[in-house]
What does this fold into?
Amino acid sequence: MNSKTASQPIVVANAPASSSATRFSIGGLFRRPEAGAFLGLFGVFVFFIAFGSIDFLKPAGAASWLNVAANLGIVAFPIGLLMIAGELDISIGSMIPAGSMTVAIISGYYGLPIWLGIAATLGLGVVVGLVNGFLVVRTNVPSLIVTLGTLFAVAGLVLGLSVLLTGTTSVALKAPELAKFLFGQFVANTFQVIIFWWLALTAIYIYVIHYSPYGNWIFAMGGDKISARNAGIPTSRLTIVLFVLSATSAAFVGMCQAILFNSAQVSAGMSFIFNSIISVVVGGVLLTGGFGSIVGIFFGTITFAVVNQGIYFTTFDRNWSSLIIGVMLLLAVLMNNTFRSMALSYSPKKK
Amino acid sequence: MTRLTTMTRALAMTAAICLAASIAQAADIAVVGGKTDDAFWTKIKKGVDDSRLVVEANGGKVSYLQLQTYDNLGPDAAGLVRTAISQGVSGIVIPNWVPEAEDEAIKAAVDGGIKVILMNAGSLEKAKELGAINYVGSDEYIAGAAGGDYFGKNGQKNVLCVNTLPGSANQEARCKGVIDGVTKAGGAGKQLPLPATSFGDPTAIAEAVKATLSQDGTIDGVITIAAGDADAAASGIQQAGKVEAVKLGSFDFNEASLDRIKNGSQLFAIDQQPYLQSLLAVSLLASHIDFGTDLPVRPVLTGPGIVDASNIESTLAGVSKGAR
It folds into this structure.
């Protein structure tokens, strides 16, 4: 079934021009969907180097934004894919604390083996993702509303169960060496190990989205869902898979946080909802779906992290941070949009 | 049949009459509070339950009226006051969370001859204005000042107050108190307001603390407005390689911060001791109603209680009993 559908012709609007890059050219490079995102990032770097200090690029300074970018990035990829496919998942805001509380309660409070806690955490992600996915596919209620419901439901469930089981809303966790090594340690005392997970996931996503048929399916869904289904793409199954991916990714990030900081709180992670959507949009994904790229989201996430953390390397009064973050992000998106429209309306000179 | 049962019946009747008589006179107190499914109100509830023993020993009773949600805080609390009035209670203990919504109901209770004590949220000025007999709770500014003073006395010269909720009156008062307290003790302090995009993201908070510490080498004390933020700040200090040089404090505590105080990687935590708030408020009110006592101490501050290495063991014991 899979091979058959893959071989059918699929009309993909605005898909990344990966196959057209047979001949290398600078102009071609700038017309790639991630070029705008890269330029946005470049502009932000120049700003903070000009107004901040060079410490910002030294290892300890770089870790400041890489750590934030890695945590955010792992969630931003599936959110970006959902947005490309025309859906949204905001339940990640409560899946992050759900992930950290699950591992902390099972392995911290009850002292059960950490692997059990990790398995339960990821399992919870899969379950919530399945619930989100099935509700969206079966009910046709907009995914924003469905995941808004699960956002609150999961938050309430975590609070209720946490108080019921442990009597508190904050649980400590002392993970064993190996789990710390894999999920929550500082490499060279400053780089969170999650950065490597993020880089590995980036490579996997790039392959799956841009070099396998699944990627084109997702773009086709965002372009026109009905046509995509008529063309034989299993849109329902794909939607459910994407929701499972985003809920599990969020639970994974929450779990890593709990292992790293040796503690989990019921109330955390809500800022990830907005932050991940911002990163994805800064990375060039259209809010209306059908357009974007993994590399773009990658750059968008770094841009957001740099803007968010760069302020601490400048001499600006910290009361202005939110203003600077807002203006910088808007400029990054504008730069990105300008380049995208230039790229899309470009036609090669006739020879 | 007969003699024994008659006697028992007579005895039972006398007892019932005595009981009825004592109920009519003894304190009947309603405590309005938050949902007991969060850690804070669970401790308040324990204070209510413990003080109830004394009140009941004198023939009175205490009931805990809790909010079902926090969505409509002020009006719901006012509604609970009216419920208490209609139940004919003789005393009410209530947090003055939303004065605009609650004041009218509290005044109605006072006008109806019910004795009122404000607890947890409010101030002495507010208590006087409404005709309440006292305010039992904490004062964020005083708590902050105690934290700043503790830093100063411990030798810290430059303290950073990490505020993850800039603009919120409570948190601003805490940080202002810290800065004023450490300044008075001969040091200096400043606030680090974090943007909303960092709220609830421990990595962003840790990195903000790390970056600030590496930009300003003179900072030797960090305090956070919440226990969870302290987990992140501890990581930031450790990443900056300044565990020895920079001391950490926090408002409120959780299991992880108590662990840090125990092993020496956190200097102290400031506790508003919620257990004392309800325990004292109910006891004072019952004693006032039953025996006409009047405590001249106004307001009654239950915090700041400082938890540090010197009292960590007894605090942990209190935690295990649900009072801390």
The radius of gyration of chain B is 23 Å. Residues 20-24 of chain B have pLDDT under 50 and may be disordered. The first helix of chain B runs from residue 2 to 25. Chain B has two domains: 2-138+274-302, 140-271.
